[in-house]
Amino acid sequence: MSIQNKLYKKLKAEYDQFIDALKSKPTNEVIFKSYEKVFKEEFVILFENIKINNEKANVLLKLDHPLDALYQEWLDNDSSFIDMLRDCIDDTVDKVKKAEAHIPSKQAGQQKKPSIEKELKDAKNEVKARDEQNNIQIKPHQKEEI
User: Fold this and answer.
1) What letter does residue 41 receive in the DSSP assignment?
2) Residue-number span of the structural domain to which 51 is assigned
3) 98: helix, coil or strand?
4) Are 37 and 18 within 8 A, CB to CB?
5) Is 51 helix (H, G, I), strand (E, B) or coil?
6) Quick one: which of 63, 58, 68 has its CA closest to 37?
7) Final residue of a domain: which of 45, 76, 107?
8) Most exposed among 19, 23, 43, 63, judged by the fewest C-beta atoms under 10 Å?
């Protein structure tokens, strides 16, 4: 078994224990721990889909609770998750404005103009069709090395 696979299994087992412990907690404590649950899950998914070098994997394997160590480091990290959320808001607003610009105005005899959500979905489908036509393939589980 590869070092990366051992690390993934250790992270997954730690996550599963965390989830099992949550199941016996009162609802208010589960809600309080929901942020921790989400980000620990993200770490597990990340390690399932990336290839980490052996040196890093060995260091993490030495820890009794590598998933909790990663989560605690995440909490102490200087990068702001809020900045990513702000970027998401800006991106959504830009897409909606772009979609609105392409919706024809309602004229007598025309059907009701489509919703913004439908316009966004149609735009995504057009991009996907164009990518397929140009033979561009996105591989969702392509591992990248960190």
Assistant:
1) H
2) 3-76
3) helix
4) yes
5) strand
6) 68
7) 76
8) 23
The full length of the chain comes to 146
- The identity of residue 17, as a single letter, is Q
**For residue range 76-92, what is the model confidence (pLDDT) as tens digits?**
886 667 788 888 889 98
Residue 144 near residue 50, CB atoms below 8 Å: yes
Q: pTM for the full model?
A: 0.62
- Same domain, yes or no, for 46 and 86? no
In this structure, the answer to whether residues 50 and 85 fall within a common structural domain is no
* Cα-based angle 76, 79, 84 (whole degrees, multiple of 5): 130
Express each pLDDT in 51-77 by its tens digit: 889 999 999 999 999 999 999 998 888
Side-chain half-sphere CA neighbours of 56 within 13 A: 11
Strand partners, 145: 51
